Every structure is written in structure tokens, then in C-alpha cells.
Amino acid sequence: MYDIQKYFSAHSIAEALDLLREYPGAIIVAGGTDIMVHLRQRKLRDAVLIGIREIPELNGIHLHEDRSIVIGAGTCFDTIYQDTLINRYIPILAEAANQVGSPQIRHVATIGGNLCNGAVSADSAPSLLAMDVKLEFRSKESTRILPISEFYIGPGKTALQSDHELLTAIIIPQENYENWNGCYLKFGQRNAMEISTLGCAAAVKLEKDKTHLVALNLAFGVAAAKPVRCPRLESSVVGMAADDMLWQKIHTEVLSELNPRDSWRASRELREQLIRTLSVRAVKKAIERAGGKKNGL
Amino acid sequence: MGFKEINFILNGKPVTTTFSEGESLTDILRNLGMTSVKKGCEAGECGACTVLLDGKSINSCIYLADWVEGHDILTLEGVRAKDGSLHPIQQAFIDEAAIQCGFCTPGLILTGVELCNSGKKYTREELRERVSGHLCRCTGYENIINALDKVIGVNS
Predict the structure, then answer these.
(1) pTM of the predicted structure, to 2 decimals
(2) What pLDDT score does A192 carry?
(3) Nearest CA in chain B to A109
(4) Which CATH number fits domain B88-152: 1.10.150.120, 3.40.50.150, 1.20.120.790, 3.40.190.10?
């Protein structure tokens, strides 16, 4: 028995926003795979829950007229993993979606929930950061769009104004996926049903000759207090060739913008080692997928 | 604490039942006599409470009873054919001695039925991945994979 005072099922975004206004302190629940566990652990008590799983417009993946790909915040990870558009244009996201929890969890857990939960270990966060996606929030008064780089504001804290707004969609503009290739690597103590010890996503764009970098986006989960990118390293490798110099530079410099911590899951030292190793591995794999010339791979 | 009414399809038959605010799908299924649905970790990790919702495996322990309205639920009690014969996955679990204490078995068989219904064939590596949401405390994984391999493996 969960300690739930009242559960409401919203059937439209407007109804969910009305309920949020009417019940201050109410919690939005989509798949519930995190919230139910928090309730079971008594981290949440006497909760008023507003369910958003019956809102059709939050569910699904669409290609818009401007060629941006829009993922409804209530779309579950299994749907993302199987989706034709995602596999064709943003395979790095399918790769991340398939590493969340277990098959049973992926049938229920949603990408919006994964973000709004604010966890530094969220499996979708590094890939979405590396793709520099935009997030759409709706409130009674307005719709606002925020780049994901401004979404995580501190440990467990996000820019979601949870008292009056909903995360409704994840938007990937065409220029953010076209000619980009990526790779997400997750390290855990076991391969399944595991919270990430370290997650690393690399997205690359190569010159036409397939030997030099036009751009690199490198993002991490559990490498700092919140999911982060490495902007200084990213801008310093623009134009470099995909060879040993590049791997060496990433290996040497990647830690300067990160601040991994000690936890019961892993020591800071192990996380530093993982960051150096996985970042080089993810960048190599992303370059390989971009058709990069094998020299030095 | 209010009572709510809910309607859904359980093992092919429509049911109407009442439940209290805060009950999980595991709770109401066990109250309806579906005791194959086990309470293991109750945190969505062990898979002992797995049921098929509209044909897809879910952890019923972290699934609110409210969410099942209008949906189709299959538990182990509904897996046998109408004439009482065992499902090929059930028979394979017997033939391959894929059961020790039996606590994880109902959930694993339901995941097996889900994979069976997909019409696909799976490599042993894929099968390991597909059952990764189930824990067998007896550690009888090898025989479990053998049983699944026999029915839905690439060489079956």
C-alpha cells in the first residue's frame, strides 16, 4: 500500500495544469518508476499525485514540417528504442533508451520523467545534452522553450517550475541531428538493472573528407554535481584530425571541467579513470559511425 | 481513504473490482486470487511481480491500480490453453529443470510468453538481455536460458 492521499488522472495538459494550481504540493507522475519507489521508501508521504499518462499529446514521436523531431515527454523508453525516426536520425538516443533499467521498466518509464526527476545518473541526460536538445514547458499562461544546457541547475535541481508547469516535449532541431553521429557509453557494476556509475555521450560532426572534426559535443552523467558538457575541451578540438593527438588531448584535458565525487557506488579515483577512458572510447566510436577514416582509430 | 472501482480484462475475462487509494496492481491481483504474482522487492527490481499489460511485461508492484482501467492483464493463471494444456514455455521450463524454488518462475514465464508472442527468434545473448529484469535467487539462469532457447531460440 502506497502512502497516497489522492490520485488524479488528467486527460489533457490543461486539466493537469488546473489540478497543479488547485493542489499545491501535488506531484506529477508519468510512468511512476521513480516516484513509486520513493513512496515505498517513505521519502514521499501522504502524496497527492497527478497522473499524466492519459494525455495523448504527451505521447509519441513526430517529424515536424521544419524537420525538427519532437518527442512527447510522456513517451516511454521502449517506444523510443523501437521508433523508426529515432533509429534513423538519432540512434544515440535509442542506444541510451535501451540501457535504462530493465525491459519491464522501459515499457513504463518515460523520458520526461527521467529528466524531471533531476538525477545526475539519468541515462537519457548525456545523450540529450550532447545533442543540445530543447525542452518545451507549458503553464497556464505560456509556453517556454529552454535549451537543455540550462535545465540542470544543481544537484537534483532542475529549472522545471514544478508548482505550475509541465515538461511537454523534447525538441531536436534538424541542425542538431543532421550530419551528426554519436555514441553513449554507460558504466555500471552489472549490465542490467543498474544505476549508472558513469555515463558518457559523444556527438561528432566531421568535415567532408571524413578526417577532421567540425565539432564535438561531449556530455557526462555522474561526473559532476549535475549532468554536464565540456565546452572548453569541445571548442579546443575543433578542426583537429581524428588521430592519436586528439585521443591524447581528450584523455589529458577532459577532467579539468569535471568534478566527480566519491560515493558508495564508486570512488572519485575510479570515476576519473572511467571519464578518461570512456570519453576517448565514445569519441572514437562516434567518429567511426560518422564514417571517419580509420587512421588512428 | 476512499474506495475506487476499476474495470479491466483479467486473463481474458472482464472484471470489476474495488480498491483503496494507494494500492498497487500487485495488491489487487493478489486480492483477486492471482497469487502467482509475487511480492519480492516491491521496488521494480526483481521481476517476481511481472504481468503482461496489453501484451507487454511490466512490474505490477510499482504500477498503481488506477492505471489498469480498461487494459488487458495476463498473469500466469491465464497462460494455459483452454483445454488445460501447458504453454510451450511452461513445458520447456519443466523439461529443462528451469525451476528451483519457483519464486521467480511466474514472472519469467510471462516474459517468455511475451517473447513467444513477438514471433521473433532470439540468440542466447538476446535472451539474457530480455530476461535481465528478473532475479533468480537460486541462480538457475543457465537452465532458464536453456528453456527459453528451446522455444524461441534461433535454432528452435
Answers:
(1) 0.95
(2) 82
(3) B58
(4) 1.10.150.120
